[in-house]
Amino acid sequence: MILNIILMKNNRTYFQTFDALRFFAFVKVFLFHIPIWGFPVFDFIKEGGGAAVSFFFSLSGFLITYIILEEKKRTGTLDLKAFYVRRILRIWPLYYVMLVFAFITPFILSLISITASGDGYTPNWLMSAFFLENYKMIATDGFPNVSPLGVMWSLCVEEHFYLIWGLVLYVVSIRNIHWLVVGSIIFANIARGVFYMQGWSFLDVCTNIDYFAYGAVPAILLILYKERMELFTETLASGVKISIIIISALIVLTLPNLALPFKLLIEPTILGFAHLLIIAAVVFEKKLFTIPQKNILSRLGIYSYGFYLTHTIVINLFVKIFDKKHIPLESPLVVLVFVGVCLGGTIAAGMCSYYVIEKPFLTLKKRFS
Known about the structure:
This protein has helices at 18-32, 40-46, 49-75, 80-111, 125-129, 133-140, 153-171, 177-198, 209-224, 226-235, 238-254, 263-283, 296-301, 304-324, 332-362; strands at residues 6-9, 12-15. By secondary structure, it is mainly α. The longest helix has 32 residues, at 80-111. The two termini are 20 Å apart. InterPro entries: Acyl_transf_3_dom (IPR002656), Acyltransferase_3 (IPR050879). The chain crosses the membrane at residues 20-39, 51-69, 94-116, 151-172, 179-197, 209-225, 237-259, 265-284, 305-322, 334-357.
C-alpha cells in the first residue's frame, strides 16, 4: 500500500515534495551567486543564500534522524557501519570528483585562454580532501580561489553532522532523543555567541547543529507521535494551514533582507523554526501541501546535489565568456539571458554528474539497507 505522503521506492522510504523543496533551495543559492546587482526585485530575491543552505541542513536533520530512529524502532539498534557507508556512497564520489576538477581548473582555463581569478586564498588540498575546507575559510576569513570549493564548506558541515549524529544516536535511546535536540539548540546558540565575539564566520557544525536539530523535530514526531500529529493536522482549519505555509515561506524569503539588531545571532532561531514548520507541513499523511513527484520541480530536485556542486563553475565560466565577448551585464535582457544560460548549463552539468557519477554509487546503497 502506498501512502499519500510516503512512497516506497527500492525498499527505501521516500517523502514526496522533498525533491521540489531541494530544488527551491538550490535556486535560492544559485541566484545568490549570480554576480549581478542593481535590479531591486532581483536583489531582494537573491539575498540570503545562507537561508537556503540552512534549509538543506534542516532537511538532512530530518532525513538522518528519521532513518536512524526508524531502524532503531524496528530492530532495536543501529547498524552504524552500514549507516556510514550509505552516507559515503551518497556524498563522497561527486565530492572528490569536484575536488579533482577544482585542482586542475587553472590548467583547464589556461588551455582555453581564460584568465583565472586571483581572488581568494590558495587551497590547502589536504584540508579540502579531509572535509576541513570550512575551517580553512574560518581561519582565513575568506574563500578559496577556485570553484566549487567555495560552496563545499556546507558539505564539510554535513559530514561532521553525520559523524556526530550517528555516534550519538547509536548510544542515546529513542525516549531520550528530545534531550539531544534541546541540547543541540542551546549548544549552537552558545557557540554562535562565542564565534560572534571572536569575529569568526558561522561555518562549522557547532554553530549550525541547531538547524539539523530543528529538522529532527518532525522526524521524532513522525516516529513517536504519528497518530497524535495526524489527528492534530486534521483538525487545523484550511486558513490556518495556508497561513503556516505562507508565513514560513515569507520568513525564509524576507528575513535575509531585514536589518535586525544582533541579526547574526537572532536569525538562525527564526529560520530554524520556519524550516521545522515547512518540513512538518509535508511529512504527515494529513500534510498541508504536496508537490507531486511527477512535477518538473520534483524531477529537477533529484539532481540538486549535482546542481549545488557545479553551479558556481558554470556561473564563473559564463562570467568569463561574457567578459571576453565584451557583453556587459547591465540591461535587463542581457541579465535574463545570462541567468538563463547559467541555469541551463547548471542543469545539464548536474544531470550529467548524477547519471555518470552519482547513480552508479547510489545503487550500491541497497546492499547496506
